[in-house]
Specification:
By secondary structure, the chain is mainly beta. The protein is built from 7 helices and 45 strands.
Length: 690
């Protein structure tokens, strides 16, 4: 059917092409060889012809087709002109090289189709171009118009399909031209148009470099009893219009799966469009196959085969279900699951699934081998109904679940022991013990045990199950034994006993406060008070608390906490002129506080410096000197002195709250200030610098 299918076909095709040439030759007119102007200025923005080309080295083949059914009909019985010009290495003008390419006459086409049955697509061309144009079964209504339009487009599509599949048909359809008069290394441009209708022309530049494109299989899918290959549409449409699919079982001897070239239908609906061409092959499961793809272009040529892909169909049918029996194994404290299978050869492994009532099922066994027939499950802390299922898995990973088996699952697992035991004591001899709840939800009570020594025998304090997580024990506060020990057991509703909890060690209640601590002496500086302390002599003292209040306060405030052995403390948070009262209290391990046996009243001295009032000497815009300060709380007045020769003379005496004074008669003499305090005392002299 194609040019390269066999040597005998090649000979027949050569003679057939010779006949086509003889049919075309008498119609060559004087236009051939005529130079024509460049038609770029006459081209329409409506493309009516689609032109492709292929360089074979010694010849260039042109293939074209009308882009719509209407364009095909208008060009059906008109000749086409082929013009060519040289583009490189030197540029030339378009020259007509053929002006008589057209659809073969009906009689000639009938004779050729009859004489050459090895080209059956000639009949497709004959029937769609010449015969049965009045084939509608409807009369005059809208259905007739729709049916005719559909038939019209089908004729156009089938004509293009036949021309793509067979170069003999393409030549007979007036859609193919072979230019054998080409020079090596020269780039040509071709133009195809109807005489006098440049607007319908199409052009193509053909480079001498022959670049072959090989198809590629993009991906493959392994199905049950079938294999699927896909290749990308947009990548291949520019090169091929149909395909052959070949398959091998040994990677060498490929057989062609389709005698007719494979063409996949294409929908204009975007929702139905796919980016891939798809081919499905029915095969046996478990066997490997190699696939390759061969593309067919518009010139009737076959491409080189694609790189092969190897696929193997999978058996997706699951095995039969196992028959399951479930019993309680009290000796092993678990549930025994046993099963049989009607077809053991189809099973690769088993897995046991379990679901307590109202819960999601989950696997409870590892992957079990195909010869396993039982499994012991210890379900943990659960007492109620549950279901068991056996999953059968075959060699291909297909899974079949057995029917669920319902059984009452006893609780074989003891609860976890109580945790985080804590105790609170008071001076009346009560010890209150508390503990956290266990993770299990079926705890019905606890057993509480106590001992007066870690090496002594524990005796049970609760005569029966104690339902609460708090227990109060009464002890003798005057006993010489300082420690008491406790441990607890949890019991669930299946009467499973937990192990003993961790032992809680409790000191008996302490009702004696520590001996007092006191402040022995102190020293005062301008800004700090240093206290000398005598700590408590009690051995169980853990800290001392230093208390402080002012003369106006009625309650103590905690100044700081000190270590048990602290003997001094420096208070640097004092203010001058303020009276402070201090006391020291000792605390033991039980939080008992000692009595306060002495208080120290300490008066901080008044600050007499005066430098801390942030003095400034400035001159305003009128040239008058201004002295500014920030008043401190103890200051009541300010005295400004001006040095006259060798003596200081008082110039201004103002209130400290004025915060500034103006010297209207000042002429640059040295300045000095003194701060007057509420008690009438004065600060030392402060030299002021303008």
């Amino acid at each position: 059917m194609l040019l390269h299918t066999s040597s005998s076909t090649l000979i027949k095709t050569w003679f057939l092409f010779a006949g086509l040439c003889l049919w075309i030759a008498p119609s060559v007119s004087a236009q051939q060889g005529q130079l024509i102007l460049d038609t770029a200025a006459y081209l329409s923005n409506t493309q009516t012809l689609s032109l492709v080309s292929k360089h074979y080295g010694d010849s260039i083949v042109l293939r074209w087709a009308p882009t719509t059914a209407d364009d095909w009909y208008r060009q059906l019985h008109q000749p086409l002109i082929v013009a060519r010009r040289q583009v490189a290495p030197a540029s030339g003008h378009y020259e007509v090289i053929s002006d008589s390419i057209r659809l073969m006459p009906e009689a000639n086409l009938e004779a050729m189709a009859t004489a050459h049955p090895e080209h059956p697509l000639l009949l497709v061309l004959l029937n769609n171009c010449y015969r049965d144009w009045q084939n509608s079964l409807y009369d005059g209504d809208i259905a007739t118009m729709l049916e005719k339009a559909s038939n019209f487009k089908n004729r156009w599509s089938l004509t293009l399909f036949a021309a793509d599949r067979d170069p003999v048909v393409a030549s007979a359809a007036g859609m193919r031209f072979v230019d054998r008069n080409v020079k090596k290394g020269v780039t040509y441009a071709y133009k195809i148009f109807i005489p006098g209708q440049y607007a319908t022309s199409e052009s193509k530049v053909v480079h001498p470099n022959i670049r072959e494109f090989t198809p590629m299989i993009y991906q493959g899918f392994e199905r049950d009893s079938s294999l699927v290959i896909q290749w990308q549409r947009h990548l291949h449409d520019a090169h091929y219009s149909a395909y052959y699919i070949e398959r091998a079982e040994d990677g060498k001897n490929y057989i062609r799966l389709n005698d007719i070239p494979y063409v996949q239908a294409y929908s204009n609906d975007p929702a139905l469009q796919s980016a891939f061409y798809t081919y499905t092959d029915r095969v046996a499961n478990g066997k490997k196959y190699q696939y390759r793809l061969i593309g067919l272009d518009a010139f009737g040529d076959e491409s080189l085969p694609s790189r092969p892909v190897e696929l193997k169909a999978k058996d997706l049918a699951p095995p039969q279900a196992a028959v399951v029996q479930v019993t309680v194994d009290s000796l092993q404290k678990g549930i025994r699951i046993e099963w049989t299978h009607p077809d053991p050869s189809d099973v690769k492994s088993y897995m046991i699934w379990y679901a307590p009532a109202g819960s999601k099922e989950n696997p409870v066994s590892p992957v079990l081998s195909a010869d396993t027939r039982s499994f012991l499950h210890q379900p943990g802390d659960y007492n109620g109904m549950g279901t068991y299922t056996v999953a059968c898995v075959d060699a291909n990973g297909n899974v079949r679940m057995s029917s669920e088996v319902l059984i009452r699952v006893p609780d074989f697992v003891p609860p976890s022991p109580p945790s985080n035991l804590i105790a609170l004591t008071d001076t009346t001899g009560l010890i209150r013990i508390r503990w956290d709840s266990a993770a299990e939800k079926d705890i019905i009570g606890y057993l509480v045990y106590a001992a007066d020594g870690n090496d002594r025998h524990f005796h049970r304090l609760t005569s029966k199950l104690f339902p609460f997580r708090q227990y109060t024990d009464t002890v003798d506060i005057h006993s010489l034994t300082e420690l008491r020990y406790y441990t607890i057991i949890a019991v669930d509703d299946a009467l499973n006993y937990s192990t003993y909890s961790d032992t809680l060690v409790v000191e008996r209640p302490d009702i004696t406060p520590p001996s007092p601590a006191w402040i022995q002496s102190f020293s005062v500086s301008d800004s700090t008070i240093v206290l000398q302390l005598v700590p408590s002599s009690s051995r169980d003292v853990v800290m001392h608390v230093l208390l402080r209040k002012s003369e106006a306060d009625s309650t103590w405030a905690m100044l700081d906490t000190l270590e048990a052995a602290a003997t001094s403390y420096t208070d640097d948070s004092t203010m001058s002129g303020q009276l402070y009262i201090y006391a020291l209290v000792a605390y033991d391990e039980k939080g008992l506080a000692s009595a306060i046996i002495n208080e120290k009243h300490i008066l901080m001295p008044m600050s007499r410096h005066g430098e801390d009032m942030q003095w400034k000497v400035e001159t305003d815009t009128e040239g008058i000197t201004i002295i500014r300060w920030i008043t401190q709380s103890q200051a009541s007045g300010i005295q400004i002195y001006i040095k006259n020769k060798n003596q200081w003379q008082l110039s201004k005496d103002v209130q400290a709250t004025d915060q500034s004074v103006r010297l209207s008669t000042y002429s640059g003499e040295p300045l000095m200030a003194k701060v007057v305090y509420a008690d009438g005392s004065k600060s030392k002299s402060i030299l002021l610098t303008p």
